Amino acid sequence: MNIYEELQWRGLVADCTDAEQLRLRLAAGAMTLYAGFDPTADSLHVGNLVPLIALRRFQLCGHKPIAIAGGATGSIGDPSGKTDERQLLTRAVLTGNITSVKLQLQQLLDFGASTNPARLLDNDSWTAPISYLDFLRDIGKFFTVNMMVAKESVRARMEDREVGISYTEFSYMLLQAFDFYHLRKEYGCELQIGGTDQWGNITAGIELTRKKLGAQVFGLTLPLITNADGSKFGKTVAGAIWLDPKRTSVYRFYQFWIRTDDRDVVRMLKYFTFLSQEDIAMLEEEHLAKPEARVAHKALAKSATDLIHGLNATQEAMRASEILFGGELEGISEITFNDIVGEVPTKPFEAIKFEGSGWPLIDALVHAGLASSKGQARKDIEGGGIYVNNSREVSLTRALGANDLLFSKHILIRKGKRNYVVLSVV
Hints:
Layout: H1 3-9, E1 15-16, H2 19-28, E2 32-37, H3 49-60, E3 64-69, H4 91-108, E4 119-122, H5 124-127, H6 132-138, H7 145-150, H8 152-158, H9 167-170, H10 172-187, E5 189-195, H11 199-213, E6 218-222, E7 235-236, E8 239-240, H12 250-258, H13 265-272, H14 277-289, H15 295-309, H16 311-323, H17 334-341, E9 346-349, E10 359-360, H18 361-368, H19 374-382, E11 386-388, E12 391-392, E13 399-400, E14 410-415, E15 419-425
């Protein structure tokens, strides 16, 4: 398959300005394309992965991707898909965000390729030098207000009389259109990709490029991902799933994919992995035959985590996941165990409890909230349902001591298959 056919098979083509012409152009030879990423935070999140991975797919097929870190557009704020005005970021915050986002863009694109290296550009470099009057005269004159208010991103906000849209965000479309024009003029860029909420901005850039350069360029939008239940993709009860491990641990990132709804897992394999059509077909067959084995979920989680965090980090996340399913603790790193601590209830206790003959396990179970009384704790131990550091305990006289501490601080207590509590010394 060529890149366009692959995107279609993966369900990644939402809209295209001239699909047949674009298909022919892509088949004719290497094409330069771009996608923009506004630095509204100091990390990208999984919702940004669809266009970012698409750039990588194009590069693997021999095309030349440009990733734009939007120092200019990010200072304004894109109204697309937003019901409220964005809070403007200070220049210092923007600069810090751009630095972080650039590092993440470099993880997925090959900037050292010999024939089709990716480029990483900041649109502030060509926007900041232009005066306000020059921009109005040289760019603004090509846009009518009638055309701008007809765009969905603007019209929806204008219909809300209480919120409305500021002149600042109203101007965002012109800035993004200017990006496409500049990239076509200076780098021969012929294609812009983005989410469906970017359609109005993309077509505005196409029109500006045609009017000023007389050149044909293309726009292709990728679907905005939602879950099968209609909820927003990439959001959990705890918030967004970030690519930066300081904001979302590798373990939690891995678990996000493991917990994918059964109805979504094959679709997510197509969107977020580079597995072949044959491999995904096999995983789909296994998933339909035995969904409880979660083979497709594990393949999705491993592929996505490998891509963003690397093989070693993925292995640690998989170890942590196995531990919460009763796996051995031997060889586990403190960093990985700390991820577990963040996922299960934690109860503090004082080391004084170890004095004398130690802390009776029966008392520890009540303290942990895993047993409602000492009598219930005894029944649970006798029934073989209590584990200390994932080792079954059957002795009613078992007492916890300093030797049970993991990393000199924690004891992992489990009741049954899934009820975990971490006891931590304070």
